[in-house]
Amino acid sequence: MLKIRTSKSVIRNLESQLVEFEAKLKEIQKEENKFVALVNLFDLMSKMEDDQNFQKELEFLKKRNNKKFESERESLNILCLHIARCGRDKYGMNRTNYGETVTGEKVFLGDVFGISTLSVSQCLKKEKELKEELRTDVAKDPNNPPTMWYLLHDYQAGLFIENHVKESLGEIAAMLS
């Protein structure tokens, strides 16, 4: 029997993948060490980008242009954009190649507030030093300057994770509702 693909069947088939993806994002969200969470987020998103399954299904939905599933198509499009933004980029934060597992040696932070670029592995090795180094030059309150650790761990990595995970979870929820 020939099975015909429809917009509805594509959405239904994506549901189990979205539930699994949602669970992994929630685990990343719970991780207290933002460097570990960032590596895990990049690894998850890179695998999703390599697989291209969501992208392929999005292209199918765009071609069908079924107005009934416009909100699902838009949510999937936004989710694909988050996956791409967390994907591999030889000059970005996630400097891995196609098919490669993301590790702390290949994820880079810095290049903000005049901070030199460091790998996550380097940041973790220098944790004590980074927690002691105060950055009075970027402090809003000169009596309470941020540490290098805060700028890299909480500000750069933490905000990146918060933005991408929160928004991705929102789009997944919209598609599953």
- Radius of gyration using CA atoms only: 19 Å
Number of helices: 7
Overall residue-averaged pLDDT value: 94
Number of strands: 2
The strand line-up of the biggest sheet is 1-2
The major sheet is characterized as: 2 strands, antiparallel
| Percentage of residues in DSSP E strands | under 5%
Distance between the termini: 31 Å
How would you describe the overall organization of this protein?
Strand 1 and strand 2 form a beta hairpin. A two-stranded antiparallel sheet has the order 1-2. The longest helix has 29 residues, at 148-176. The protein has one domain (7-176). It has seven helices and two strands; from the N terminus they run ααααββααα. With 177 residues, the protein is an all-alpha fold. The mean pLDDT is 94. Helix content is 63%, strand content 2%. It has helices at 7-30, 34-51, 53-64, 70-85, 120-125, 127-132, 148-176, and strands spanning 108-109, 118-119.
Short structural description:
It is built from seven helices and two strands, in the order ααααββααα. The chain has 177 residues and is an all-alpha fold. A hairpin with an 8-residue loop joins strand 1 and strand 2.
